[in-house]
Design brief:
By secondary structure, this protein is of the alpha/beta class. It starts with a strand and ends in a 5-residue tail after the last helix. The chain is built from 6 helices and 5 strands.
Length: about 150
């Protein structure tokens, strides 16, 4: 699978764990690899979001300090379904029922072991495709169009 990964200056603390879990996938690494310089999460959200929108990546993992800012920023982009997940159920269920394409993590909330578990659950899941889940996603897409989201 083609997976984009990005970290702001606080998210970088989970970088090694996330990249370890992405081994075996085609990874687009948008950095950063240091906390010495402030990197704003909206910039990283845009990079991974555009990679998905342009078809360069199928999914992404985006890490900031809490995961909240990353999820908020990523969800502003058309077609991006991002969520903060700090438990295994949400990480796979978000894909299975909601076709989540960006997993957001908080480096100040979880440690490396749980980060690896969540990335594995996220990437190991597939969208259910059931009628009720598709209908819900169609409603979300309609909301995006009606609200001119992404323009």
């Amino acid at each position: 699978m083609k997976v984009a990964a990005a970290f702001d200056h606080r998210g970088v603390h989970l970088r090694n764990a996330v990249l370890e879990s992405l081994a075996g996938h085609e990874v687009i690494d948008f950095g950063t690899d240091t906390d010495a310089v402030r990197i704003d999460y909206p910039d990283k959200a845009r990079e991974v979001g555009e990679a998905i929108q342009e078809g360069r990546a199928e999914r992404a993992v985006l890490v900031c300090g809490s995961g909240v800012g990353a999820a908020v920023a990523a969800c502003k982009m058309l077609g991006i379904r991002a969520a903060i997940c700090h438990d295994g159920y949400s990480a796979h269920q978000g894909v299975e029922h909601d076709d989540m394409n960006v997993l957001c993590l908080g480096s100040e909330i979880i440690g490396p072991s749980l980060a690896r578990e969540l990335v594995d659950a996220f990437l190991g899941a597939t969208f259910n495709g059931g009628e009720r889940y598709v209908a819900r996603l169609q409603k979300v897409a309609e909301m995006e169009r009606e609200m001119k989201h992404g323009e």
